[in-house]
Amino acid sequence: MLIFALGFRSFMTDPFVVVGGDAAGMSAASKARREAPDREIVVFERGEWVSYGACGLPYYVKGEIDSLDELVSVTPTEFREERNIDLRTNHEVTAIEPENQVVIVDGPDGVIEQPYGELLIATGASAIVPPIDGIDLAGVYTLHDMEHGEAIKNRLDSDDSIDRVGIVGGGYVGIEMAEAFHAHGLDVHLFEMLPHVLAPFGETVGKRVAEHLREQTVSVHLDTTVEGFKGAESVTAVQTPDSTVPVDMVLVGAGVAPNTALADSAGIEIGERGAIATDEYGRTSTADVYAAGDCAEMTHTVTGEPTHVPLALTANRAGRAVGQTVAGDPTPVGDIAGTASVKAFDLQAARTGLLDETRAAEAGFDLVSRTITTRSRAGYYPGGSPIDVTLTADRSTGRVLGASMVGEEGVPKRIDTVATALHAGMTVEELESLDLSYAPPFGPTWDPVLTAGKVLSGAIEH
Amino acid sequence: MLIFALGFRSFMTDPFVVVGGDAAGMSAASKARREAPDREIVVFERGEWVSYGACGLPYYVKGEIDSLDELVSVTPTEFREERNIDLRTNHEVTAIEPENQVVIVDGPDGVIEQPYGELLIATGASAIVPPIDGIDLAGVYTLHDMEHGEAIKNRLDSDDSIDRVGIVGGGYVGIEMAEAFHAHGLDVHLFEMLPHVLAPFGETVGKRVAEHLREQTVSVHLDTTVEGFKGAESVTAVQTPDSTVPVDMVLVGAGVAPNTALADSAGIEIGERGAIATDEYGRTSTADVYAAGDCAEMTHTVTGEPTHVPLALTANRAGRAVGQTVAGDPTPVGDIAGTASVKAFDLQAARTGLLDETRAAEAGFDLVSRTITTRSRAGYYPGGSPIDVTLTADRSTGRVLGASMVGEEGVPKRIDTVATALHAGMTVEELESLDLSYAPPFGPTWDPVLTAGKVLSGAIEH
């Protein structure tokens, strides 16, 4: 097989091989298939599930989505039969040999060598399992893959004795899972070691979300390091410096880490953010090897520097671009502004760009920031609620650097206005001059983004 | 007074005089006051009401807003006492004499001459009263000013005999008033002479809104010219070429026309769109005379040509800019993309930029357009509904020209993404590469705007 791969490379094209069958991998395979109908495309996925919406897992656990199958956008059978993609589930790629242009694959029928013309590493990320005492106790869960979601849901549905649950980490997963557990009538304790939940969204968002969680009867423990989990076989308590909080179950939402071991072993460069280094086309340091999705670094829209923001759109887009490039139409993977949104019970929070002064300074910006509060509808129109907007800019150039917002309605798509302005490199003055939509049921005459622009613009001038 | 004005112009500053006390006028006066605390500022308003949200009138008629006073953002007393603005209601400016730098004002105490240092014409627009037979019958209303809103509301509240109402025109006012009348339990007939309602929003929006109106039991008569109104003293029927539709009341929503007579009489240039011609600072053809708001033309973001889009944000912003300019800090009034949104019962519709092929061709663009339908939430997330997005671009350059959308949620602020892209002059490829927010409750992974971008991009390439 190896000899075949090397010997005939100049006479025929080896397949486009993809490692990992989730967002980036399957987007790449599908796009390559559409653009190159005759190309052989092989995808190796070590698990059973492919092409699924992991972002929906908290809502599956909550009970709003009936079956995990609903999270699957395209089934393995559809990929194989309708898209003519050689998708092999339960196949784990254990090594890449760039010098031979093959991957080593451990599958149900043994170990095989698979030659590749181009290779895409789309190994994704894994939930971080922090080295906390008692992390291995039964009843301590993480939530990243379908199996995790299934395990938590089965436990909740089958075990009536669960009354109290601890959540470690106030990030996306922690916040979304607080809502999910609360829907099951549980007493929820959320532990965050930082002074605010949703740290990447800034202080205003964090404060309002924490307050809202408490209104919903979630116990929010800020500035609180979890020292360990107590219990004999199953977890029975969360230990903090101040107290021992009894729990029947724990969800650890400590973030994710890119799966880089496979690439690293093959001598492929890992970037300064800890994910696989890539160029604007998703190419790694090794010829004919691409990386995309949660395992790869991307270029930040504002700083122009490598960053690692493992989110769904990025994975889909970068995968799709690599598929197109491999099919002969070089396509940039795009850059990312770190735009994100999250639902926290009845609140919506969103962010984009740079919000942190230190991070901005590292990129050479003198970050100035203002927070304003206006309404989600015209003042006289019933049903409106406050929207808080934080807008940041570079003091010397006036360039918009980022924004965050929080409110009960109209938040997630409003952040996109600022995300678009970031891509365009707009100044605050330009942002302030945008002709945005207005109707009394949907916002004030001056959209909250414009009001934030006016106030920040004034702060920069004086 | 005239001699005073001329004789002392070089020794002292005559006041900043504003004609018209609504959005543009009061924004200008307020901004000038903040920036120039010692400047004398005089505002003449021919009516009683100043600085009110006319966009809220349909919701006042509907009964969702209790009092007209709620539509007033700042009261006359507040302007006078807190902002030190010499606001004179019930004063009509009947002439401008640029050669003498005075305005002639007809007020409760007789006619006066008022010298000005700078003059702002903010005379607004008026509802068009089309020359239809029977337009003067009792029971035929327009809706533009507070008095109109009050008259219609009083009539509905006091007259139990009203069962059927005719609406002439399927624009903003017609659509919003259909909802308002329907809330009063009336049998509503809406007449639109074009093939679609909300013509500036394009065919996809128009069709879906009309269908939705019909689901709400509104009778929508498309392609139907109203030939006249029948009745002895009060209107009793709407006459069309095909039928006589009995009604007890009529609302004519035939659009608005800029109030340009005052400017025209003073020899100030009227532009090709029929409103007062202005430059980027809101200056008219006459020295020291500005115009802003619904009476003035503005520059279109996409075409760079004069346009007339009488909407609230534009009026506020242009007025504010003129106030700042007059106070010594020259500030452009901004350009407008024609961004707008409207609520139609449970639907939201929005538009921005150029949607019409002919209009685009006039501006030198070869407009290509695609319409896509996706969902307002992730496919698996409960409660989502279809969103239709039409995106337009110039075929040769790929530059985004405009968009419209319609759906049950997430529409108005989603159009702002495209509006921002228009201001930045983005191509479809750039639009498609935006890092927009995603979370399952708020949209699909690929935002509908991005999906529209992908499809339109494909159409341009091939």
Automatic annotation (TrEMBL), chains A, B:
Cofactor(s) named in the record: FAD
The keyword Isomerase is assigned to this record: no
Molecular function GO terms recorded: oxidoreductase activity
Signal peptide start and end residues: none
Any Pfam family: Pyr_redox_2
Superkingdom assignment: Archaea
Record's keyword terms, sorted: FAD, Flavoprotein, Oxidoreductase, Redox-active center
EC numbers: 1.6.99.3
Listed InterPro entries: FAD-bd_OxRdtase, FAD/NAD-bd_sf, FAD/NAD-binding_dom, FAD/NAD-linked_Rdtase_dimer_sf, Pyr_nucl-diS_OxRdtase_dimer
Residues of the Pyridine nucleotide-disulphide oxidoreductase dimerisation domain: 340-443
Keyword set includes Transport: no
Domain FAD/NAD(P)-binding stretches: 16-311
Family: Belongs to the class-III pyridine nucleotide-disulfide oxidoreductase family.
Name of this protein: Pyridine nucleotide-disulfide oxidoreductase NADH dehydrogenase
Lineage: Archaea, Methanobacteriati, Methanobacteriota, Stenosarchaea group, Halobacteria
